[in-house]
Specification:
The chain has 13 helices and no strands. By secondary structure, it is an all-alpha fold. Helix 5 runs antiparallel to helix 8.
Length: 304
């Protein structure tokens, strides 16, 4: 190894060592939050259920023509959660629906946070007329009901998973934009930013090397919190009949139960399982988000 190569490799090795130390320190702090551990355990369980669904229940569980039971059978040893209006096994449908609900929640949250982070960082860095215009648009989105905007988008576009993800992502970003902009303004007021500018650092260098690394912890915490909102929004849109009817999701199961008259007929097994699954996953992501937020910013004083 030449002297030049060794000189280049040393900073990289030091950076990797610092990242590992930071990750270990984060995990030590996270483990002190009992609620966060409960949420993480629940999410790991649901993720395993979703990933192994093709092996445990198979894709044929969605088939209406090959339904194994009679319509609206109550829970039994053969069908632990009963059957739906077509005679399909509800346990298998709930397991299979977890794949769609979790996927939509994750992708919609990533899209929302990406839009909010981009707008927040650029508005906090450039300021002037650009920041004024962007933040007024953000304020308009903040005062408009998110669900109404999502319904409007889902109505005028084709009924598909992509439409649901887009509708949720482009209507839930303003909160993230506000938070990231505030953090960007705080970072850019620090002395080392002035030194970087004095040494000739351009806009891209300042944002990519100094601002973004400092706002990423906030973005990470915000992502875990928004996922629960996205999952609830997907369930709401599917329940209103704006989702893809050919895809099984928890919200779609609730919509099917409403259409089948499960509420008035007392078929509780059609309503309760997907509803409980939505509530548990949303709660788990919220608990994880609060724990992550507390670890990254201990001054918040989030209870453990």
């Amino acid at each position: 190894m030449t002297a030049e190569t060794a000189t280049t490799a040393a900073p990289r090795a030091l950076a990797r060592q610092r990242r590992r130390a930071a990750a270990a320190r984060f995990w030590r702090e996270y483990r002190t939050h009992r609620a966060g551990l409960f949420g993480l355990a629940a999410l790991v369980l649901f993720a395993l259920v979703a990933l192994t669904a093709p092996l445990t229940v198979g894709s044929d569980v969605q088939s209406v023509t090959d339904a194994p039971g009679k319509p609206l059978e109550s829970p039994s040893p053969q069908f632990p959660l009963g059957t739906d209006q077509f005679g399909r096994n509800l346990l298998g449908l709930v397991v299979w629906g977890s794949r769609v609900s979790l996927l939509v929640g994750l992708l919609a949250a990533v899209l929302s946070v990406a839009i909010g982070a981009l707008i927040g960082v650029t508005a906090g860095h450039f300021r002037g007329w650009y920041a004024t215009v962007i933040m007024r648009i953000t304020d308009w989105f903040l005062v408009m009901p998110t669900l109404v905007l999502a319904i409007a988008l889902a109505t005028v576009m084709s009924r598909s998973l992509g439409t649901i993800i887009l509708a949720i992502g482009v209507t839930t970003w303003p909160t993230t934009a506000r938070l990231v902009r505030a953090q960007t303004l705080a970072v850019e007021s620090r002395p080392y930013i002035e030194r970087a500018k004095a040494l000739g650092g351009g806009h891209w260098h300042i944002m990519s090397r100094h601002v973004v690394p400092n706002v990423m912890p906030l973005v990470l915490a915000q992502t875990t919190l928004i996922i629960s909102t996205a999952i609830l929004a997907e369930a709401t849109l599917a329940f209103l009949g704006l989702g893809d009817p050919s895809i099984v999701s928890w919200g779609g199961l609730l919509q099917d139960a409403r259409e089948a008259g499960a509420v008035s007929s007392g078929d509780w097994w059609y309503l309760v399982p997907p509803g409980i699954a939505i509530a548990i996953v949303a709660l788990a992501f919220t608990l994880c988000g609060r724990a992550v937020e507390s670890v990254l910013n201990p001054r918040l004083g989030v209870s453990r």
